[in-house]
Fold this protein.
Amino acid sequence: QQMMGAVIKTYYARQAGIDPETIVSVSVMPCTAKKFEAQRPEMNSSGYRDVDVVLTTRELAAMLRQAGIDLSGAPQADFDSPLGESTGAGEIFGVTGGVMEAALRSVSFALAGEPLEELEVRPVRGFEGLREAEIEIAGRPVRVAVAHGLSNAEELLRRIQRGEREYHFVEVMACPGGCIGGGGQPLSKDPEIRQKRASVLYRGDRAKRQRMAHDNPAVRRLYEEFLGQPGSPLAHRLLHTTYCQKLSPAAAS
């Protein structure tokens, strides 16, 4: 969300010839915490408020119903360019294990110069609250862990703190099932609903022409035309942030 907002008010504004001060960036998210994130005072790396308004998917659905808009009958269309292209790796970000799987696909290319033998990394998929796996990439064992739900995240951290486990990469999602079970999504405690939502994302991944994040042509153009190299000063300023401890009013007093 915040990376996209910063890029819209810099790269996109320049490409489209628009004064960034006149842009209102609206983000639609499955997560209620994104509303707080957009209001963090440091989220202005573009020189403006990076994201102006955040709607949850449930709020957007309510607005569509109130307006009498039925998306099921709407014609199919491509997203606008620039930044209108996506990959299968981006598709699965919304399910627990998806960020891990997307990263491993690109790690394989970075370390071995070739994709994983099995692009679908089954060991990190599933709905067990805490999962561990060892994936061999370029002859090296890569130890990973995936947790969803804060109680499982707490247990994972305790294992690491006690020295019981060592990992190269850890993924934690606060909501059960990942973003598909986010607080801004249509409400359901039925685990089958989360499984159906996950299956839609995995099906979307398989249908994509490009399934690895580093192959996204829109992102490649973004770096070539604007950001330079990954980790460049401009990329770091627009795409990275820092965090500090947030105390509740009761704790602060």
About this structure: The chain has two domains: 2-69+216-239, 88-215. The first helix runs from residue 2 to 16. The mean pLDDT is 93. The radius of gyration is 20 Å.
